[in-house]
Amino acid sequence: MKKIIKYIITDILRNKIILSYTAFLLAISFTIFSLEDNSTKGLLSLLNIVLIIVPLISIIFSTIYIYNSAEFIELLVSQPLQRKKIWLGLFTGLAGSFTIAFLIGAGIPIILFEATAVGFMILAVGILLSIIFVAIAMLAAVKIRDKAKGIGVTILLWLYFSLLFDGIVLFLLFQFSDYPIEKPMIGVSMLNPIDIGRILILLKMDVSALMGYTGAVFKDFFGTTAGMITSFLVLAMWMICPLLISLRKFDRKDL
Amino acid sequence: MISATNISKQFGKLKALDNISVTYPAGECIALIGPNGSGKTTFIKSILGMVVPDSGKILFKGKDIAHDCHYRSDIGYMPQIGRYPENMTIGQVLEMMKDIRNHRGSLDDDLVNDFNFKSLLNKRMRTLSGGTRQKVSAALAFMFNPEVLILDEPTAGLDPVASEILKQKIVKEKEKGKLILITSHVLSELDDIVTQVMYMQDGKMIFYKPFDLLQFETGENKLSKAIATIMQQNQFSDIL
Questions:
Q1: Which of B51, B69, B100 sits opposite A254 (nearest CB)?
Q2: Is A195 helix (H, G, I), strand (E, B) or coil?
Q3: What confidence score (pLDDT) does residue A172 get?
Q4: Shortest Cα–Cα distance, A56 to chain B (Å)
Q5: What range does the domain containing B203 cover?
C-alpha cells in the first residue's frame, strides 16, 4: 500500500493543480491577515474561504482524478494487489495531499498571525473538511460509471452542502418559528459537515451572542466538552461512512 | 491449474456468461474463440478477478480466487486494449510494475530487448501508438516469468515483425510447460501453437476439445476452416 500511495502522491504533484491550490491559499490568507488591522476580522474572512473553497476544490479535483486514473486502477487490479489496499491507497494519497496543501497554505499564515484557539479550530476544521470531501468524491466516483455525470453529481453535492442546505434550514426555521425548534436544529446541523464546522468555529469566536436564542442553545451544546467531542465524532463519521461504503462498492466492482 | 464451475455473469439484461464450467490443465495452449460479444473477455477478466461473477467458483491451483490476490503473481495478463497512466513514460511504467510485483527471481527481458524499448524508454504513454502500447502490454505480461499467460487478442494492432516476435515468444514459453490462454480473431496464426480449442457463443460454452480431435471431426487442417465448418453446422441445426 505504501507503494501505491507513493505513486499517487508523485502523480498528484506532477500535475500542478495541488501546487497552485497551495499557492492560492497562501496568497489569500496572507492578504486577508495583512489587510485587516483586527485579526479576528481576518479569521472571519478566512472562515468563509475555508468553508466554501476547500470543499469545492477537494471534491471536484478528487472526482476528476479518480476518473482519470481509471487506467491506473485497472492496471493495479490485474496485479497481485488487494483491491481494498488499492482503494485505501488512493484515498490516503488524495487526502494526504490535500491535508498537506491546507497545512502549508492556511496553516503557516494562521500560526504566524493568529496562533489562538480559534486559529487552530479553523485549521482542524479545514483539514477535516478536505478529508471528508475526498471521501464523498470517492463514493460518487465509484457509484457512477459515467465521467460527466459523476462530475455533475459532485458539483451538485457541493452546492447542496454549501448553499442549498442552509436555504432548507432557514425555510424550516421560518415555517416552525412558533415552536421550540432550537434543540432539533442541533440535530439538523449534524446532517451537514460544513455546518458543523461553521458552528464550531463561530462559537470559539464568541460571536454567538449575535445569533440570539438559537446561539445560546448552540453554545450550551457545542460549548461543552461533550458537545465538542460529539461534533468531532460526527465529523469523523462523515469521513468514515462514505469511505467504507465506497470501499465495499469498489471491492465488487467490475472493471 | 485453473478450473471454473458454473460461472454466470449478467450485465443488466445481457447474459455475458451463462453457466460455464471448464478445467485448464498446465502445459496446454488454449484458444478461446467466439464471435464479438460472446463473453471471451468477460471470462478472462473473471479469472483475473477484475470481473466478479454473480455465481460459480473459480479455483486456481485448487484455491478459490474470491477475495484472494496473491494467485495473480503467477499470471501474466496482456489486455485487449492496454491502458496505462497517460503521463508516465514507458521506462517509468516498467519500473513501477517491477516495484509493485516485488518479483523474486530473474526477470524476463526478452521482449523488452526484442521490441527495442531502449530507444523508447523516455516516451510518454499518451504519445504512443496502439501498436506500441500492445508491445508494452506484451513485455509486461512475460516479464515476471508467470506460470500462466493470459493473452487477450495479443497480435491485434501489431505489425508483422512484432507479431512474429511475439509468436516465437509464445512458442518458447509453451515449451517450458506453461499454461497459455489466447483469444484471437485472426485464427490463422494460432494453428501451430494451439492444443485445445474452447468455443463460446452468447455467453455459453459450445465446446471445449483438443485441436487434433477437432481437425479429425471436421476434416480440416486449419483452425479457421475447422471453426467455419462448425459454425455452419450450428447454423444448420438452428434452422432445422
A1: B51
A2: helix
A3: 86
A4: 25
A5: 2-239
